[in-house]
Amino acid sequence: MNRQVFNPNIRNLDVPPIPRIQRAARNYTGPRENLVDLSQAVPGYSAPDTLLQALGQAARDPACLGYGPIEGESVFRDAYARDLVRTHGGAVSSENILITAGCNQAFVSAALSVASPGQSILLINPWYFNHQSTLSMFGINTSHFTVNASTGFLPDPARLAAAITPDVRALAIVSPNNPTGAVYPAALIRELHELCATRGIWLILDETYQDFLPAGHGPAHDLFDDGPSQSLIGLSSFSKSYCIPGHRLGAVVAAPSVIEQMGKIMDNLQICAPRAPQVALAACLPQLDDWRAANREEINRRASALRQALAALPEWRIDAMGAYFAYVRHPWPEESSVSIAERLAREQGIVTLPGAFFGLDQEHYLRIAFANVTADVIGTLAQRLKI
């Protein structure tokens, strides 16, 4: 009898989505300099010299070589709490912060802390694929509420309420959104939080792209006004804002009682997040505000370049855009989005992600991560995507 059987929760997962499409790109026969990778949300510019120097110093420091506190370096938790007060307002302290190895790990910790196998977490469809696969991996059910272009890919709280069935333990939202780019207005985030609190479930708010809100938007929300509540779990990442995805740093923002539970999970996942980048960022955060603002302006220029490029192609339509992403309706309704993405990568050297990766009934879409490349390169899409 063969007892070497894989965990079905893992065996049944799809292969990682981004490498699947990038394999097709490796078969592109055109000039490699013409390959345009719009598949993954990777900053298309380098981290600032100030941070690079601080990273080098911290990496050489023997004090960063041992195990650190499970919740994160106290100096970094303090610095990030102050940064959140600057960007969001309200009252946040280091007791509200847990540092993780990237935002995916923050979501893993959040999901495991509030839901058991057989219970459900409610996702907005289309969803970020790693959220759904994380739930499947741990035997947590995915409930979903579908949004579309008619509502700007934003949920109506009154209709969403009906999707909160007795097995649902949390609602997870992403703003600015991945994959659509849609930005949740602060009033909507407040309304969703109040709905969750009333129904006795958690709001998991992923703000990975919080530093790329549209100009003039103001604070993302006011949920920190009285400190993070007992029904809120905020998640964030430092990968995009500071161009350090390889250093794997994310954060949880929540009430101390939540941080205590997540500390148990982190001790089993990784013991502590990488220490050197925490120390380096703690020294640099306050002096990088202008640098972050300049990058937001640059990303907005790239968004404008994409709008202009696709405006010349009436058969393509941007149904949503914001932060790093555009959710684009392609002109081949009879073909699967996976087939289209693979064909574009292989034949045109344009690497996008298919809508099918992001949930149910998303075949009409491709996700374009426009922050990865410069505006002049984005401008070439007008010619290369002609059909």
Question: Can you put this structure into words, describing what you see?
Answer:
The chain is α/β, with parallel strands linked by helices. The protein has a seven-stranded mixed sheet with strand order 2-8-7-6-5-3-4, with helices on both faces. Helix 6 links the parallel strand 3 and strand 4. Helix 2 packs parallel to helix 13, helix 5 crosses helix 6 and helix 5 packs across helix 10. The longest helix has 23 residues. The protein is globular.
Defining key terms:
seven-stranded mixed β-sheet; 387 residues; alpha/beta; single chain; four-stranded antiparallel β-sheet; 13 strands
Summarize the structure.
With 387 residues, this protein is an alpha/beta fold. It has helices at residues 8-11, 17-25, 49-60, 74-88, 103-114, 129-137, 157-160, 186-199, 239-242, 256-269, 275-284, 289-311, 337-348, 375-379, 381-384; strands at residues 36-37, 97-100, 120-125, 141-146, 168-174, 202-206, 232-237, 250-254, 317-322, 325-329, 350-351, 353-354, 365-369. The strands form three sheets. The protein has a seven-stranded mixed beta sheet, sandwiched between helices. Strands 9-10-13-12 form a four-stranded antiparallel beta sheet. It has a two-stranded parallel ribbon with strand order 1-11.
